[in-house]
């Protein structure tokens, strides 16, 4: 079953390769959506995928890139939008 969620990741997640890290994991797992920096220093991820794939992807949001520090991950389920790819903004 296709699931769509929006995530807000807080911590040291800008300027440390976090978006690139997430992009690569999303592509490897077939996740669609996007990742973008927010003005408050956090990162927003909108991700859609099959249940097990999305849950596997989520683990990387908590892990972060080598130089990042993830302090918190908040998420909520949203209606499926039908993204065709995963993008970095």
What is the chains' assembly state?
A: single chain
Shape: globular
The radius of gyration computed from the alpha-carbon positions, rounded to a whole number of angstroms, is 12 Å
- Mind describing the biggest β-sheet? 5 strands, mixed
What's the number of helices? 2
- Give the terminus-to-terminus CA distance: 27 Å
Helix proportion range? 25-40%
Low-pLDDT stretches: none
Query: Mind telling me the CATH class?
Result: Alpha Beta
- The tally of strands reads 5
Based on secondary structure, the structural category is alpha+beta
Order of helices and strands: EHEEHEE
Q: Which strand order spans the largest sheet, edge to edge or round the barrel?
A: 4-1-3-2-5
Known CATH architecture = 2-Layer Sandwich
């Amino acid at each position: 079953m296709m699931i769509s969620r929006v995530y807000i990741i807080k911590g040291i997640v800008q300027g440390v390769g976090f978006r690139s890290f997430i992009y690569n994991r999303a592509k490897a797992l077939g996740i669609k959506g996007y990742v973008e920096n927010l003005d408050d220093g956090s990162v927003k991820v909108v991700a859609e995928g099959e249940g097990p794939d999305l849950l596997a992807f989520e683990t990387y949001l908590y892990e972060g890139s080598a130089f990042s520090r993830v302090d918190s991950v908040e998420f909520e389920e949203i209606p499926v939008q039908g993204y065709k790819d995963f993008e970095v903004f």
